[in-house]
């Protein structure tokens, strides 16, 4: 049994590691790639905002189609998405100029990758229910580690080979992912049919009516990721007044990404002692402390300490929110639940991009962090109401 668990886990680790390696190329280095292709900063902002908005629209739509239990399975959609990313990366490698074409292709692959991120998470719970036991926390944590290592390696590779190396690396990682997906087949087992009274709530308003406390929590999560993305997106503007450099920024990003691994690897054991609701509130408090430390930082030492809070904030939130969805939702709604969690992350980034850039221009990074701190505190209050007051009462009635 242990050998089988390691075998399933190994393949799921490769799926996560390659996904986040490509995520590094498409997301973390988006500005680097698009600037080289002649995009202005304004056009880059438009490209990424459009892609994020489209992903928010399509994530629950695609999840709803999967939840209908038809031919569109988690694995099939993940394979198709990977293939689309591969085709898009090849086209971007071959196309040397043409801003309109590059704009369309890049926005599409950026959007597609965001759309199938929650589907990879949902696939774990599907396979686990079928007897394919996987160490989810370890696999997800190594995905973050893959992002950290790839980001550092990619930065050096761009300096040596130029920006086209981004698409070359993406093509390699996507090819590996596609091969692993092809052989990552769930064994044929008789899955219990949904209860006759169980229905899929594919309409947004029906979903909100059924899970009002969860959707309120999603609103709180949007606030968490407003600050999270503000710090990530505008790190260089934050640390420059403190004497920070691009190299120190790279170190700060590396610290945050690498420290996600130990927490995610141990999260299964942690959840045996602490409930998902309490852990999500703990993560929200950690987001608040991380933002506060960044706000009061007089030097890079405290910036690094702030980044280390990632192991209690993002590294707790991501796996625990996935388990929370699985525990609190009917089977026909679980993929949508994962999608809405991912939408909260995306929306936080969209609002952060729209608001914080302007705040930086008119008030500077210190004021931007004040606003981020207030928004995060509001998110923690909202999450407490959703998880402990409203959701806690509903849980008590159910039990």
Number of domains: 2
**Could you say what the CATH topology of the largest domain is called?**
Growth Hormone, Chain: A
SSE-based structural type: mainly alpha
Instruction: Quickly count the helices.
Output: 18
**Termini Cα gap:** 33 Å
Report helical residue fraction: over 70%
Query: Biggest sheet, in brief?
Result: none
CATH superfamily of the largest domain: MFS general substrate transporter like domains
Extended strand count? 0
Q: pLDDT under 50 segments (min length 5)?
A: none
Tell me, what is the CATH class of the largest domain?
A: Mainly Alpha
In CATH, the architecture of the largest domain is Up-down Bundle
What is the 3D shape?
A: globular
Q: Give the rounded overall mean pLDDT.
A: 86
| Element pattern in H and E | HHHHHHHHHHHHHHHHHH
- Based on CA atoms alone, the radius of gyration comes out at 20 Å
């Amino acid at each position: 049994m242990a050998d089988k668990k390691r075998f399933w886990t190994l393949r799921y680790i490769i799926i996560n590691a390659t996904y986040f390696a490509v995520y590094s190329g498409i997301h973390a280095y988006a500005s680097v790639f698009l600037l080289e292709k002649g995009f202005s900063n304004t056009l880059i902002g438009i490209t990424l905002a459009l892609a994020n908005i489209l992903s928010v629209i399509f994530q629950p739509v695609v999840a709803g189609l999967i939840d209908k239990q038809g031919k569109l399975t988690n694995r099939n959609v993940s394979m198709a998405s990977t293939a689309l990313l591969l085709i898009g990366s090849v086209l971007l490698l071959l196309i040397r100029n043409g801003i309109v074409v590059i704009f369309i292709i890049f926005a599409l692959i950026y959007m597609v990758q965001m759309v199938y991120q929650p589907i990879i998470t949902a696939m774990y719970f599907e396979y686990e229910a079928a007897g394919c036991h996987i160490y989810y926390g370890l696999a997800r944590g190594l995905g973050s580690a893959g992002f950290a290592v790839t980001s550092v390696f990619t930065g050096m590779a761009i300096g040596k080979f130029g920006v086209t190396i981004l698409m070359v690396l993406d093509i390699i990682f996507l090819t590996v992912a596609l091969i692993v997906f092809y052989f990552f087949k769930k064994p044929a087992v008789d899955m219990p049919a949904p209860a006759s009274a169980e229905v899929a709530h594919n309409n947004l308003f029906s979903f909100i009516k059924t899970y009002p406390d969860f959707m309120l929590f999603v609103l709180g999560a949007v606030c968490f990721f407003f600050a999270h993305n503000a710090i990530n997106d505008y790190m260089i503007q934050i640390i420059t007044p403190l004497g920070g450099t691009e190299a120190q920024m790279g170190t700060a990003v590396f610290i945050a990404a690498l420290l996600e691994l130990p927490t995610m690897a141990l999260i299964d054991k942690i959840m045996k002692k602490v409930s998902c609701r309490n852990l999500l509130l703990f993560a929200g408090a950690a987001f608040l402390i991380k933002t506060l430390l960044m706000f009061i930082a007089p030097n890079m030492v405290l910036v690094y300490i702030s980044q280390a809070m990632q192991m209690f904030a993002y590294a707790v939130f991501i796996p625990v929110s996935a388990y929370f969805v699985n525990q609190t939702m009917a089977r026909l709604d679980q993929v949508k639940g994962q999608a809405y969690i991912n939408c909260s992350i995306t929306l936080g980034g969209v609002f952060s991009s729209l608001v914080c850039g302007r705040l930086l221009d008119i008030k500077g990074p210190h004021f931007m962090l004040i606003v981020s701190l207030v928004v995060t505190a509001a998110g923690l209050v909202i999450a407490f109401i959703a998880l402990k007051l409203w959701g806690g009462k509903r849980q008590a009635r159910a039990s």
